[in-house]
Amino acid sequence: METPTPTPQRNRRADRYKQDSGIAPSPELLQRTAPPIPAPAAAEAPPPVMARPKPAPRRTEKRKLPLWITAGIIVLMILLLALLAAQNLMQAYIVQQQNAREAAYQKIVDNHPIYYKDLIDQYAAENNLQPAFVAAIILNESSFRTDAESNVGARGLMQLMPDTAEWISGKLGDSYYSFDHMWEAEQNIRYGCWYLNYLSKLFRGDPVTMASAYHAGQTTVTGWLSDPAMSPDGLSLSLSGMKDGPTKTYAGRVTQAYAIYDALFYQTAPAPGAVPDSALQ
Q1: By three-state DSSP, how is residue 160 classified?
Q2: Closest to 194 (Cα-Cα) out of 224, 170, 222
Q3: Torsion of CA 114, 155, 184, 118, to 10 degrees
Q4: Phi and psi for 160 in degrees, rounded to 5?
Q5: Is the dihedral of CA 211, 216, 218, 219 positive or negative?
Q6: Is the dihedral angle over the CA atoms 114, 120, 122, 124 positive or is it negative?
Q7: Which residue among 30, 65, 168, 223 is the one 20 to 30 A from 238 at the CA level?
Q8: Do the Cβ atoms of 139 and 257 come closer than 8 Å?
Q9: SS3 at position 155
């Protein structure tokens, strides 16, 4: 009887795993039995690339401008700077002149105030006078002071003398006249405007002759008109023909103030240039 060859134990274990025992192998077992996965080999670094030497920069020579071009540029720059300086100087001069003219204009305004304008306008209209001329007389007689009194006794705004005021009161029919009334602005302007109207009729409304008569008296001025050296036409006086003295100075100041008052208060609102240039001297 033939003896069967025994199956090796190892094979029996293997056969046992082949049987469907319904039990899955554990992860630890699979990990022990699975062959190890080799790690990927590290990538070899590429051989170093030899840097190519940079080419040496080319030396470029700067082209020099011709001497005449350089000189021309310098001359042009000097001319431009000179023009700018001249323009700045001219602008500064214009501003300075404008400021000086405005200052002169403001000085004229300050030196030619006007008070009691309503009364001046009223009695100038009643006596056919220019109100600017009346204001000029008042400015030069009293500087608009109602309490003004001269060393010869003239009183008030228009500096009326006692005998002149009394004579005017008779012409006006003022039965309540008193020389003390000449301290009052309205009475003084009323009397003074009547007298100026009288002089205007006598001397044909000429402002120089009227102002001279108001200052020196109508009799004195009538004598001057008869002198051909002072009045070629025998009807009016001119400042250039009058002899130097207080009356000529007074008449010149009155006529100048007359023009200024007319420009400041009785015409369209003036700019500084509206005042006569002679007044800015």
Answers
A1: strand
A2: 170
A3: -20
A4: -85, 135
A5: negative
A6: negative
A7: 168
A8: yes
A9: strand
3-state secondary structure of 149: strand
List pLDDT tens digits, range 169-223. 999 999 999 999 999 999 999 999 999 999 999 999 999 999 999 999 999 999 9
> CB-based contacts of 15: which residues, under 8 Å, 6+ apart?
none
Question: What is the residue type of 144?
Answer: F
- Taking alpha carbons only, the member of 137, 138, 141, 139 closest to residue 150 is 141
Please tell me the total number of residues recorded for the chain in this structure.
281
| Closest of 131, 255, 246, 107 to residue 192, by C-alpha | 131
Please give the Cα distance from 154 to 148 (Å, whole number).
8
Q: What angle do CA 193, 195, 198 make, to 5 degrees?
A: 115
* pLDDT at residue number 202: 95
Locate tokens 């305004």: which residue? 109
CB neighbour list of residue 270: distance below 8 Å, 6 or more residues apart = 263, 264
